[in-house]
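Support request from a user on the community tier.

User writes: "When I paste my C-alpha cells into the form, the page sometimes reloads and wipes my input. The last time it worked, I copied everything first. Here is what I submitted, just in case something in the input itself triggers the reload:"
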C-alpha cells in the first residue's frame, strides 16, 4: 500500500518531538518539524514524484530525502526506531497531552520519574507539577483537564469520520438477501456531532440467515437484538424489526429517550409522522429531537445545505491555505455558489503566515482582477483578524476599513477564566469593524474543550452591535454549539455557516455545519449566508459605514 503524505508527515512530526525529548541537537528537531509542515501541504503525493523532484522541494535536504525514500520503500527510519525504542510507551502517551511540549515531557519523565498518564494524573493531584520549576498551578490545572478530557473521549468518534461508512453500510445491508429494508437509526440518524457507534434498523424475516450474511461485512460479536458487531474498530448496533412495526421501532430506536418518552407510538404506523399527528404535534425532524423543543419549527423553514448561497471564512496560499485565491474562488463558483468571502489570517498569526499590510494590498488587487473575470460571481475581501489578549483586533482602523468584512477570532492565549474570556470577546464584538464572531469558544471536539464564555452575554452583545455569529462548519469545531442556536434566533442574531476552509475540499464542510444547524432548529431566514450576494454586499457596506462614523 502506498504511503500518504499525511502519514509521512506524521513520521517527521514524531521524529522532531522525540529528538527534542531526548535532548538532541535542536536544529534536528526544527528541520524535522519544518519537513513535516511542508510535506503536509504538498498537492501531489510524494510517492508520485521522482527522487530528483523530491530533492528540489523547499526544506527537503539530502538527509530528509533519504528518510522519505525509506518510507516510500516501506522501510522504517532507523533514527526514529532508535528513539522509539528508548522511549517508554507511557511517555509517548504523555506527549499527546495538550499543552505539554517535549521539554516539559522530558522534565516529567527524567526529573520526576513519571512514565505514564496515570502516574501523571496522580502527581497532579499531589500538586507536584504546581511546585515544579517551569510548570505552576495553571499548567497543572490544564494538564488535569486535558487528561480528564482524553479519558472521557475514548471510544468516541466525530460524526464526519463515520458518515461515509454508515451510508455504505445501509447500501450493503439493503443488498443482502436476508434484508428487506435498512435504515440508519440512533444518534447517527440524529446527526449527533459525537458518536459511540453506528446504529442500523433492518427488516430481516430470517435472523439466522442475517447473522450468516453479516459475516461478509463485519465481525459479529453478539447475536441478540440488537446484534452487536464491529467494523474497522467501530461498534455497530443492528436492531431487527418486523415489517408491521417498522415505523414504531424506527421512532423508538432513533431516540433520544427523553424525546421518545414524550410520545406513545402505536404498534403499527404508516409513517413516523403519525406519531406526532396522534399527539397533535408538528413533525420533529430527527436532527432536532435532541433539542426536544416544545414546538419545533416547520420542517420547510429549517435550514438545509442547498439553501446556502455563498461561502464565507476561506483561507488561501496568502496565509496557511493549500490552494490559491483563484482556485478557491473558481471551485466555489463551480459548486454553484454566488460568492466567496476570503479571510486569510491576520499579521499576529505569524505561525500561519498572517498577512502584513503590503500583502493585504497585493491580495486586494488580485481580488479586484478576479471579480472582473468571474462576474457575476463575487469575491468579498475579508480577513480573519486575531482577537488580541485585550480584545482589540489585529491591525489599526485604517487597515481594518479596507476589508469588506472581518471575522474576529481567538487563536492564542486560550487559558482564560470565564470572566476574562467573556470580556475579551465583548471588547471585540463592540469594535465597529467586527462583522462575524468566529468559532466562539475555540473548541476542538474530542481534543480540546472550548474556553469558558458567558454565551448569553455574548449573544446579547452581538444582537446590540449587529454582529453575526459563526457556526464554524469544520467537523472538529462545529462552534457555536447548536444548543445555543435558539437563543441566537430569539435575540435576533444571524448565524453564518462557515467552512473555515484551508483547501478546496474544505469548502464541502458546510455539509456538516448545516447538519449541526438543523440540530439547533436554525431557520433559513436566520442564516446569514442564505442571503444573495447583493444583499450581503449591502450588509457589509452598512456595517463599514457605521465603523467609519465610530
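"...and here is what came back when it finally went through:"
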Amino acid at each position: 500500500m502506498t504511503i500518504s503524505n499525511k502519514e509521512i508527515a506524521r513520521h517527521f512530526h514524531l521524529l522532531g518531538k522525540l529528538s527534542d525529548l531526548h535532548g538532541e541537537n535542536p536544529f534536528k528537531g526544527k528541520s524535522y518539524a519544518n519537513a513535516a509542515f511542508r510535506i503536509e501541504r504538498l498537492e501531489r503525493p510524494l510517492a508520485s514524484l521522482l527522487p530528483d523532484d523530491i530533492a528540489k522541494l523547499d526544506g527537503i535536504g539530502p538527509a530528509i530525502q533519504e528518510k522519505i525514500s525509506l518510507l516510500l520503500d516501506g522501510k522504517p527510519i532507523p533514527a526514529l526506531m532508535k528513539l522509539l525504542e528508548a522511549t517508554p510507551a507511557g511517555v509517548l502517551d504523555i506527549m499527546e497531552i495538550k499543552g505539554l511540549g517535549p521539554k516539559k515531557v522530558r522534565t516529567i519523565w527524567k526529573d520526576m520519574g513519571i512514565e505514564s498518564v496515570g502516574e501523571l494524573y496522580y502527581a497532579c493531584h499531589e500538586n507536584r507539577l504546581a511546585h515544579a520549576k517551569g510548570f505552576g498551578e495553571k499548567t497543572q490545572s490544564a494538564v488535569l483537564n486535558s487528561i480528564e478530557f482524553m479519558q472521557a473521549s475514548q471510544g468516541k468518534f466525530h460524526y464526519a469520520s463515520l458518515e461515509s461508512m454508515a451510508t455504505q453500510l445501509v447500501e450493503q445491508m439493503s443488498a443482502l438477501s436476508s434484508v428487506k429494508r435498512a435504515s440508519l437509526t440512533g444518534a447517527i440518524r440524529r446527526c449527533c456531532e459525537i458518536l459511540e457507534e453506528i446504529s442500523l434498523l433492518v427488516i430481516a424475516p430470517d435472523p439466522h440467515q442475517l447473522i450468516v450474511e453479516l459475516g461478509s461485512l463485519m465481525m459479529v460479536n453478539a447475536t441478540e437484538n440488537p446484534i452487536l458487531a464491529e467494523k474497522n474498530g467501530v461498534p455497530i448496533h443492528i436492531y431487527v424489526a418486523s415489517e408491521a412495526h417498522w415505523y414504531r421501532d424506527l421512532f423508538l430506536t432513533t431516540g433520544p429517550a427523553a424525546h421518545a418518552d414524550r410520545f406513545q407510538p402505536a404498534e403499527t404506523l404508516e409513517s413516523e409522522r403519525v406519531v406526532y399527528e396522534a399527539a397533535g404535534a408538528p413533525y420533529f425532524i430527527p436532527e432536532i429531537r435532541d433539542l426536544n423543543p416544545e414546538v419545533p419549527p416547520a420542517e420547510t423553514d429549517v435550514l438545509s445545505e442547498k439553501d446556502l448561497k455563498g461561502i464565507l471564512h476561506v483561507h488561501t496560499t496568502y496565509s496557511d491555505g493549500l490552494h490559491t485565491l483563484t482556485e478557491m474562488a473558481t471551485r466555489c463558483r463551480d459548486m454553484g455558489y454566488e460568492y466567496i468571502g476570503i479571510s486569510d489570517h491576520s499579521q499576529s498569526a505569524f505561525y500561519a503566515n498572517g498577512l502584513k499590510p503590503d500583502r493585504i494590498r497585493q491580495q486586494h488587487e488580485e481580488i479586484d482582477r478576479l471579480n472582473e473575470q468571474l462576474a457575476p460571481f463575487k469575491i468579498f475581501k475579508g480577513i480573519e483578524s486575531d482577537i488580541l489578549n485585550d480584545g482589540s483586533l489585529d491591525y489599526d482602523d485604517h487597515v481594518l476599513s479596507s476589508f469588506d468584512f472581518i471575522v474576529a477570532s481567538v487563536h492564542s492565549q486560550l487559558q482564560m477564566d470565564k470572566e476574562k474570556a467573556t470580556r475579551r470577546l465583548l471588547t471585540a464584538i463592540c469594535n465597529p469593524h467586527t462583522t462575524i464572531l468566529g468559532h466562539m469558544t475555540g473548541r476542538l471536539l474530542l481534543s480540546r474543550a472550548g474556553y469558558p464564555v458567558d454565551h448569553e452575554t455574548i449573544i446579547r452583545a452581538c444582537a446590540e452591535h449587529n454582529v453575526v455569529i459563526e457556526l464554524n462548519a469544520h467537523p472538529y469545531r462545529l462552534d457555536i454549539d447548536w444548543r445555543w442556536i435558539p437563543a441566537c434566533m430569539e435575540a435576533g442574531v444571524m448565524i453564518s455557516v462557515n467552512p473555515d476552509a484551508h483547501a478546496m475540499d474544505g469548502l464541502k464542510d458546510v455539509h456538516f455545519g448545516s447538519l449541526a444547524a438543523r440540530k439547533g432548529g436554525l431557520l433559513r431566514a436566520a442564516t446569514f449566508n442564505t442571503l444573495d450576494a447583493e444583499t450581503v454586499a449591502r450588509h457589509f457596506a452598512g456595517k463599514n459605514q457605521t465603523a467609519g462614523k465610530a
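Agent notes: The reload is a front-end session timeout and is unrelated to the input. The radius of gyration is 26 Å. The chain has a mean pLDDT of 92. Escalated to web team.
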